[in-house]
Prior knowledge:
By secondary structure, the protein is α+β, with helices and mostly antiparallel strands.
Amino acid sequence: MKTVLFYGPQNIKIEEKEVPKAGPGEVVVKNKVALTCGTDVKMYMRGHPLWVPPFLFGHEAAGIVVEVGEGVESFKVGDRIVAHNSAPCNKCYYCKRGQHSMCENILFNFGAFAEYQKIPKEIVEQNMFKIPDSISYEDAALLEPLSCVVYGIDEIGISLGDTVVINGAGPIGLMFVRLAYFRGAKVIVTDISEERLNLAHELGAAFTINVAKVEDQVKAVKELREDKRGVDVAIEAVGLPEVWEKLFVWLGKVEEFCYLGGQKVEVL
């Protein structure tokens, strides 16, 4: 089979490898669709501190089961599936507190950019799912990023009637738009792309702002509230420090100090 291996920043190669074999509890999948995540792009550009090259590349995919290992009962050959790229240990301090993303022994799996990939036992048991007939491989492959947004929405605790600003209308931002809309929020979206802003409106945004066309982005957001007060929730889906800083200014009355990345930050 053909597979992509990561050898270092801006150094990936397509190589011929043997199709993996399923061990006990494992499943081999023929990838039908693979997506490129922002993490993939960052890893390609500068590497990743957690993994030493060479290693398999890509982590968002959907496909069809071609082999199941001994002991696998929930899946069979021919099943259409989508799997997360990780699974927690469920034994460490953080897992016991329900903070599975902080797991001290979390297992990661790569290999989406390949014709076939092997899904480890831990992921098969916890984070692999059958794809309903009504869902395409393309849509199913979005499960992993969507799960991140679902987790974020749940942690934020948006209430009915809240005003929420979402900065950035890329895939993650647009998922936040839809889920915040379902929570009953009035959603404001900012971006520089009219195409993405139009899509945000279709997904439920009450207002959109092209930040390339306004002088004061913060004022433009606050002007959309009748009382000109800051928003109730601000979501950053761009990944730029200057946007992070605006989050605090957009918010309504908050504590004099907030914590960002473990550091005390004064709210202006």
